[in-house]
Please model this.
Amino acid sequence: MIIDNILKLFRIEVSVRQYIVKASQVGKQENEQKKDNEAGKQPSVDFIRTIVAEDNRTKKWDCEVITRFPPEPNGFLHIGHAKSFCLNFGIAAENEGGRCHLRFDDTNPVMEEARYVESIQEDVRWMGWDWEEHLYYASDYFDQMHDYAVQLINKGLAYVCDLNAEETREYRGTLTEPGKDSPHRNRSIDENRDLFKRMKEGEFKEGSRVLRAKIDMSSPNLNMRDPVMYRILHAEHHRTGSTWHTYPTYDWAHGLEDSIEGVTHSICTLEFENHRPLYDWYLDKLEVHHPQQIEFARLELTYTVMSKRKLLQLVEEKHVNGWDDPRLPTISGMRRRGYSPESIREFCRRIGINKFNSTIDIALLEHCVREDLNKTSNRVMAVLRPLKVIIDNYPEEQEEWMDAVNNPEDPEAGTRKVPFSKIFYIEQDDFMEDPPKKFFRLAPDREVRLRYAYFITCTDVVKDDNGQIIELRCSYDPATRGGNSPDGRKVKSTIHWVSASHALHAEIRLYDHLFTKEQPQDTADGEDFKSSLNPESLTTLSDCMIEPSVKDANPLDRLQFERLGYFCLDKDTTKNEIVFNRTVTLRDTWAKIQKKGQTAQIRKLNI
Ligand code: ATP
Ligand code: MG
Model:
């Protein structure tokens, strides 16, 4: 027995060492591949797609490819989930006759709610994926799972255990110490069947008994030390009501769900690698359809958190305004902020699929968003922090409608007319009374071009009693209409503007990272991840001016405000108030990072 245990510990030690060596080799190759992917090159086929292709070649599953995306309805989906469902739905779509199920893993009634079920469907659909008729709920299999549990009891492979939580932990042992058999491990099959039946019927208190698999209390893998299959919960389930008093654990339920649905490739994240022997054990012992579990690295992003528990905390404690707050990495937050499904999918394609945990720079996501919005969003002019300008030599009542290009990247987007008049607004930042050498925008006695309009020269600066600039007086050159001077005169800058009498007034919300730390979850002892929340993650500007063509925009419409960034009409918009979110600025930090060749440095490895 002692020698047995020593040998087992030795095996743990060797397998951990092998894992570290393997991980660092895999890591090197993956780093190379990721560099290419992130640079936008066509990625090489990832290891999961390679497995699927090989299975098709060998007809392992009769050329069927059935995957699934199995969220637990205990929160909204985030971009980490997007990585997972783009992989699962993507693989299904790439293989003829393939399909991907959307399955709600609703085995824990305490945290789950119907509204999460709805939001998850909305988000997956918005991202462009379709499960057709394959929408499933783990709770629909509760009867079947229960039958399977009785089968294991009948085979002498499961038993009812009365140890309390603390005793169970004690008996379990540790990584370096084997566990001890529960005193209830050798109950008769009849007694187990009877107790399990009574557990199901609600006869016992919560926490008083569990059903456990009878595997091996001294296994080097802690997950194999007689894991719990059912616990007693007298909780109302959002679909099955109060029918059940026992609920299956994740490990017991998950493989059964896959098996019942005939899944071929059960793709999950790396933390389940150690659970795979258990997944296999259950399905082998039950002698049922046995999908292959394959693990990949979960997505982590800088300056944000991705755990649903943490996101829920941010929402419940009102650090953000709901699950769809545009600062959150939730799909609904990103949608509201103006990210397009195409850009999120492109991001997921670029980061690729690998077996090595790492944190991706959020600048890459923003880069993908910019790339897509640059191609697809129409340009308009808006002024965030207005400074009034009056052109003294422009006729009082005159207005002119200037031709403006909607999207230089897309000739089909056409042109529009933008009104110009004597009084308009420019950005406060576009004027300096005493400009430094490299400031080429408007300044006293300097001439600049107004986008699509005229050359103007600043002739006077009007201030209030506190010395604040409140207005500029300018002159314009009527010969420069459209933006060029017939005498060939050059100006060094072009600025945007919005005619005062035609302007739509709007509230504009500017966003910054939600956290000031790159990895907010890395906290010192006793410190909370919320201690690095960024107090300036939201800036609200309430007196912004936008050109009138925007009046018919609908919530979620995406526009580029020239020189300022990409913006998206918010659902808070009413008849009387227009609200825009800034999706992302025009400045591309990712492009800069790449130019400097810093990609390797900013990617922090987690192990
Ligand atoms: P959390 O632990 O934060 O609650 P979860 O992983 O338990 O998240 P699920 O609803 O169970 O959330 O996730 C559904 C699927 O999405 C699972 O297959 C899971 O592996 C995958 N997934 C969740 N988070 C990520 C992530 N950050 N990167 C990639 N896949 C993820
Ligand atoms: Mg989970």
User: Anything to note?
Assistant: The CA atoms of residues 475 and 604 lie 55 Å apart. DSSP finds 15 helices and 27 strands in the chain. Residues 72 surround magnesium ion (ligand 2) (CB under 6 Å).
